[in-house]
Design goal:
7 strands, three-stranded antiparallel β-sheet, Gyrase A, domain 2, alpha+beta
Length: 508
């Protein structure tokens, strides 16, 4: 494998980003809006460094840069690009886009180490293709039962099941692909976020790849406005000065912490560990203050907030609740969960960026033994489970060989599979969790995220039934109120979930 180089393009950008920031700063002290064309050379040299150095960084948030990113690893995206809330991404889906050829991050390696790395990456793709072949008929049988498709059904229905089963097989088979696998995406960030990424380019699990990508972003921006980095900004923090670095040095892996977390989870993917017992009353009292209605009972206020029959915001797909005075009290109610899901599931789950998590650094949480999540479809098929287990052992064996050969863990970890288990805490306000639970209790949601969301909702229902009463997927919220129940169109899951939610069984 040739050493990787990311492909970074600047697809769209703010006009005159540096001058625009200076003009925005000047507008704060002017009776009108100052235009970028009015910014003088002296102001470029004085106002820019003054605002940046003093911490008045919002002026640099007006500039936005839309990047096209290709040949970047999914591990880098998870570890660095999506580890904060200040971005927007549209990323190629491994769930529904077949990975037809080996395409993965390759560090500059030579000799035996290069051979071990390349063999491990290629082996994961071989397992991926074999699993697709094994799982396709298994998925088809389940889908035909779900959609009541019989051998005598119309050819068009049968062909549709063929397409669906291929996608389901791909979705599950991707668990064996390495976290080194390439992805592509449109990634938009503000100027201040870009400054922060530059400052932290040496942090996280993937500093080598991160530096390559961030340096390319900076190059693209310099081409359209050299002053944006020439006049302001800070140099990257040295790796040795980062507070996490001492804990990422090579050391024997401990299983004690993983055992403790697994024991606390007791078979769950997500366990509620913290919430305010008085949350329903707090929520209602905050609502009374908003509406200036002291006579309304707690139950009535909660109905007005959460019942989709009384509150139009609850049944809208355009998430209007964030702008609603009546729903702003939802920010005051917080829930914290202890979770265990795979690297690939969390890569999707972390896109709910307003429900932050203290995700683990893999460099500080290395596991010598295979530590992975097994999807339901694989667990129910002996042939698939055999192939899957073999792929897991092969990935961890390859990582061990690379470490023995002297490769740093930062690079050896890339051969680990998407199935890699992650353990962490996640917290969110009811406002943001409500949005997440609406989307992820749908049967079309990724399997692990669906399971965790259903477990979370079950536990919230046990402690706060008045709050959880009106939480569920769109088809449940919209049932009997508006049409269509399911806003997914042709992607409707085929199950009348609204008839008995949350007592539903996911079969595939």
């Amino acid at each position: 494998m040739e050493p990787s180089r990311p492909r970074v393009t600047l697809r769209s950008f703010s006009r005159e980003p540096y001058a625009s920031a200076i003009a925005a700063a000047r507008s704060c002290y002017a009776p009108r809006v100052i235009e970028p064309s009015e910014v003088t050379a002296a102001q470029r040299d004085s106002v820019g460094p003054l605002t940046y150095g003093a911490g008045h960084h919002t002026v640099y948030q007006h500039a936005h840069f839309e990047f096209g990113l290709e040949n970047v690893s999914r591990h880098f995206v998870w570890s660095f690009l999506h580890s904060h809330p200040f971005y927007n991404s549209e990323q190629s889906s491994q769930r529904y886009v077949k990975q037809k050829q080996v395409a993965a991050f390759a560090p500059p390696l030579e000799g035996d180490v290069a051979g071990i790395y390349e063999t491990a990456i290629a082996a994961s793709w071989d397992s991926y293709f074999r699993l697709i072949e094994i799982l396709r008929p298994v998925a088809r049988e389940k889908l035909c039962a779900l959609y009541h498709v019989r051998p005598t059904s119309l050819a068009s229905r049968s062909q549709r099941m063929d397409r669906f089963s291929e996608k389901r097989a791909m979705e599950i088979a991707r668990y064996v692909l390495p976290i080194a696998a390439f992805t592509s995406m449109v990634h938009t960030i503000s100027g201040i976020t870009l400054f922060r990424l530059v400052r932290l380019r040496n942090s996280g699990d993937t500093p080598m790849e991160t530096a390559m990508v961030i340096d390319e972003m900076v190059r693209c921006v310099r081409e359209i406005d050299p002053d944006f980095f020439a006049k302001v900004g800070d140099a990257p923090v040295a790796r040795d000065d980062l507070p996490e670095t001492p804990f990422t040095a090579a050391r024997p892996a401990s299983t004690e912490q993983r055992r403790r977390i697994d024991a606390e989870l007791a078979g769950r993917s997500s366990r509620l560990v913290s919430c305010d017992p008085g949350a329903p009353h707090l929520l209602a009292d905050a609502g009374r203050l908003v509406l200036g209605e002291n006579g309304l009972s707690d139950d009535r206020i909660l109905e007005l907030m959460l019942n989709p029959a009384l509150n139009i915001y609850r049944r809208e797909t355009l998430d209007l609740g964030f702008h609603s005075p009546l729903l702003r009290p939802l920010h005051h109610v917080q829930y914290t969960f202890l979770k265990k899901i795979s690297h690939t599931a969390d890569s999707q789950d972390q896109r709910h960026r307003m429900v932050p998590a203290s995700r683990p650094m893999l460099l500080a949480n290395d596991s010598a033994d295979p530590d992975f999540i097994t999807p339901m479809l694989i667990d129910e098929c002996d042939a698939a489970r055999h192939e899957y287990t073999k792929a897991m052992r092969s990935a961890w064996d390859a990582k061990a060989k690379l470490l023995e050969a002297g490769l740093p863990l930062e690079l050896a970890q890339y051969v680990l599979p998407n199935a890699l288990a992650l353990r962490f805490y996640e917290s969110g306000s009811l406002m943001y969790l409500l949005h997440k639970w609406t989307l992820r209790t749908c049967l079309n949601a990724q399997e692990e995220i669906f399971r965790a969301s259903m477990e979370e909702l079950e536990q919230v229902r046990a402690v706060h039934p008045a709050i959880a009463r009106y939480i569920g997927p769109f088809c449940v919220l919209r049932n009997g109120i508006t049409s269509p129940r399911c806003p997914e169109g042709d992607h409707f899951c085929g199950v009348p979930v609204w008839r008995d939610f949350p007592n539903i069984r996911r079969t595939i």
